[in-house]
Design brief:
Blueprint: H1 42-56, H2 74-77, H3 96-114, H4 121-132, H5 137-140, H6 152-155, H7 160-172, H8 176-189, H9 194-203, H10 206-219, H11 224-233, H12 237-250, H13 255-264, H14 268-281, H15 286-295, H16 298-311, H17 316-329, H18 335-345, H19 352-364, H20 368-378, H21 389-402, H22 406-419, H23 424-437, H24 440-453, H25 457-465, H26 469-482, H27 487-499, H28 503-516, H29 521-533, H30 537-550, H31 555-567, H32 571-584, H33 589-598, H34 605-615, H35 620-632, H36 636-649, H37 654-667, H38 670-683, H39 689-695, H40 705-715
Helix pairs in contact: 7-8, 8-9, 9-10, 10-11, 11-12, 12-13, 13-14, 14-15, 15-16, 16-17, 17-18, 18-20, 19-20, 20-22, 21-22, 22-23, 23-24, 25-26, 25-27, 26-27, 27-28, 28-29, 29-30, 29-31, 30-31, 31-32, 31-33, 33-34, 33-35, 34-35, 35-36, 35-37, 36-37, 37-38, 37-40, 39-40
Length: about 725
């Protein structure tokens, strides 16, 4: 605490009048025996105040001499900071007692202001603004200045963002000259900030921009961005090269500058010399090594890549480049196998997804062999035997197919089939790839390998189609000895016996098959239909009851149970079963379609279809049922829309194509029918209850998609 001046022991100043400060100019009391002495006149008081103010450097009106008169906002002066107060006591000391008093009075004022006083006007607005927009400490504690807002450049003159924002604001307002002036001041205030200089260069024309760039580089000679910008301002290639070489003298370890220098060279020899120098200075730059290898002859490129591998042993890009070089030279060396070993040792092995992306890049650039080597050596990386590797690899292949990278997908299937040799799903997927995107020779090759590797189901089908039933039976018997859990083999065995009218042997084949493969729904359905055709409805019902226990929540099994009762004339039992089925599988379009068309009276079909649409997600079978309803009501446009919606949901369902084609045969044009046939042939649908039943008959095995479409459409009954 500052000590109080000891003025009591000093003589009074000249012209001092006791009590003049508090207005004591003379008075009388009862104890006075005579009149009080006459006080000073008004002129004397003014003269004394003026002399005292002159000694303290204060104007006679109570303000500092260098301040201008301002009678406005007098009410605000009462709340000025005591350290900066003006008036008679401006020269006094401000101690803790004064501070405490000011704090108390401020609390009183704040309480009054918060108590709902409606007056205050401009002062209340200013206080609200100051609370929402606090000044920086440097401004808040500094000496008071004249009225007026503080601009951003005055508040934070060294903030580059503020200068750039101010210049762009002026530019947006169409004041280009003002924007240049603002950013020029920013460069003066922030000479080491590169962004401010770049903004200044951008706002000026080329001639001035060159001068500004030169000045900027003087202040920031290690900035790559400034050197590159200065190079781009030049028009002549020679001038550009001169700037870049000056830049390299200042920043020799900048990869970006070396790349710019190489790009400016038109002669490959000069570019090669530059890259050789660059790789000496920056040996860890993979891009520079690869660029140098591309410019060299194949023999020298191999030497360059060997140096690059020693310099950057963790770079997989260099290994891929080496593999592509070997492919270009026609060598059969598997570089990627060695690459994986080295990268694993260096703990720099990328993820398998990255390897697939690199393989697709190689395929896109024509390096098919390297693409295959990458997949072969890296596809299993990071996957354990416990992982669902088959599904993962099939997803990878489908992703590559969707991106148009068929060689990568082919390599993925090839690798997966080496692991899962007997996977019929993988072999079929590989065959589909060749059928859709390969050649007939490649398709035949895949099918030959599939027959050798898988259960001989395809050979059995072939013999059955040719009518060689004995040979087909022999093959299926042999195959079942090796693969007793193959449901397709049991189905083929039963169907062959049915073709020969040997129902007993067929029943035995199906019965044994459902015990060996109890989860096969198609096998259960064949078994139940055999019993129904034999007139044994009770046994068919029993088979389906067992099937639903083995495969619960199967819409196909529930639907077949309902149909067995309906075909037997037990409509009430069929409705009861359907109610149970919809409780267990409420979102099955197959069940709802069966109920709408076979268990509901005509007047209730449309309300039931509305209920089904609300309860079932997008289901193509239900959409076909709704389309048929509109067809029956002669609302042809709506019917066509619903058929097309069903095809969008599942174009692989042959039944949908057949119903749509049957509709167009009655109400469509030749052009529309031709369009549907073309699309159906292109898609080659494989699923559908009616489609499969007709397409898989031995008599139809050699027929094309268009013929099958006509057969199925003609077999459908409205």
């Amino acid at each position: 605490m500052a000590s109080r001046r000891d003025f009591l022991s000093q003589p009074a100043p000249e012209n001092y009048i006791a009590g003049i400060g508090r207005g004591a100019t003379g008075f009388t009391t009862r104890s006075d025996l005579g009149p009080a002495r006459e006080g000073p006149s008004e002129d004397q008081i003014k003269e004394a105040v003026a002399k005292r103010a002159a000694q303290l450097g204060i104007g006679g009106d109570g303000k500092k001499g260098d301040d201008k008169d301002d009678d406005k906002g007098g009410d605000d002066d009462r709340f000025k900071d005591p350290d900066n107060e003006v008036g008679l006591f401006a020269g006094g000391l401000y101690d803790k007692d004064d501070e405490e008093a000011d704090r108390i009075w401020q609390e009183v004022d704040d309480r009054w202001a918060g108590g709902g006083r409606s007056s205050g006007g401009a002062r209340a607005v200013q206080e609200e603004y100051e609370r929402n927009n606090p000044k920086s400490p440097a401004v808040a504690t500094g000496p008071r200045r004249g009225p007026g807002p503080i601009t951003d450049d005055e508040d934070e003159p060294n903030s580059p963002g503020g200068w750039i924002a101010g210049a762009r604001l002026e530019e947006l307002a169409g004041k280009t000259v003002a924007a240049r002036n603002v950013i020029a001041r920013g460069c003066e205030k922030c000479p080491k900030n590169v962004d401010v200089w770049l903004e200044n260069i951008r706002l000026n024309d080329v001639r001035n921009a060159k001068i500004i760039a030169a000045e900027a580089i003087k202040k920031n000679d290690k900035s790559v961005l400034l050197w590159v910008e200065a190079m781009r301002l030049e028009n002549e290639p020679r001038a550009k090269k001169r700037v870049i070489r000056l830049a390299l003298d200042h920043i020799p370890d900048s990869e970006a500058l070396w790349k710019e220098a190489v790009n400016l060279e038109e002669d490959q020899t000069d570019a090669r010399l530059l890259l050789a120098k660059a790789t000496e200075i920056i040996p860890l730059s993979v891009d520079l090594w690869l660029a140098l290898a591309r410019l060299e002859t194949p023999e020298n490129a191999q030497k360059v890549l060997n140096k690059a591998r020693r310099a950057v042993p963790t770079s997989f890009e260099i290994w891929i480049a080496a593999a592509r070089l070997q492919e270009q030279l026609g060598a059969s060396v598997n570089v990627m196998k060695r690459a994986v070993n080295v990268l694993v040792k260096e703990s720099a092995m990328p993820k398998r997804e990255e390897w697939i992306a690199e393989a697709e890049k190689c395929e896109e650039e024509g390096a098919v062999a390297t693409c295959g080597d990458i997949i072969k050596e890296t596809l299993g990386w990071g996957l354990d035997e416990d992982d669902d590797r088959k599904d993962t690899w099939m997803d990878d292949a489908r992703g590559s197919i969707n991106r148009g990278m068929y060689e990568t997908a082919r390599a993925i299937y090839s690798y997966a089939l080496r692991v899962f040799v007997n996977s019929r799903t993988l072999w079929m997927a590989a065959a589909d790839l060749e059928r859709n995107h390969g050649t007939r020779a490649s398709l035949c090759q895949v099918l030959d390998k599939a027959v050798d590797a898988c259960p001989k189901s395809e050979s059995v089908v072939f013999e059955r189609v040719l009518g060689h039933t004995d040979a087909a039976l022999d093959l299926v018997q042999q195959a079942l000895q090796y693969f007793p859990a193959a449901a397709k083999l049991w189905m083929l065995k039963g169907q062959i016996y049915e073709d020969l009218d040997k129902l007993g042997q067929a029943r035995e084949a199906y019965s044994t098959g459902v015990k060996a493969v109890p989860a096969s729904v198609p096998l259960w359905l064949l078994y139940a239909r055999l019993e129904e055709r034999a007139g044994l409805v009770v046994k068919a019902r029993s088979v389906l009851d067992r099937a639903r226990l083995a495969v619960p929540r199967s819409p196909a099994l529930w639907c077949e149970s309902v149909r067995v009762e309906r075909r037997a004339g037990n409509v009430n039992q069929a409705k009861s079963l359907m109610a149970k089925a919809l409780q267990e599988v409420p979102k099955s379009g197959l069940l709802w379609s069966e109920q709408i068309w076979h268990l509901e009276p005509r007047t209730q079909r449309k309300p039931r279809s509305l209920e089904a649409i609300k309860k079932v997600d997008n289901d193509p079978i239900l959409f076909v049922a709704v389309a048929r309803l509109f067809w029956g009501e002669r609302k042809l446009e709506k019917a066509q829309n619903w058929f097309e919606k069903a095809l969008v949901l599942d174009s692989n369902n042959g039944d949908t194509w057949a119903w749509y084609y049957k509709f167009l045969l009655q109400h469509g044009t030749d052009e529309k029918r031709g369009e549907v046939i073309t699309k159906c042939v292109l898609v080659e649908p494989r699923h559908g209850e009616y489609w499969q039943a007709i397409a898989k008959r031995p008599a139809n095995a050699r027929k094309g998609t268009e013929e099958i479409l006509n057969l199925v459409a003609n077999s459908l009954e409205r």
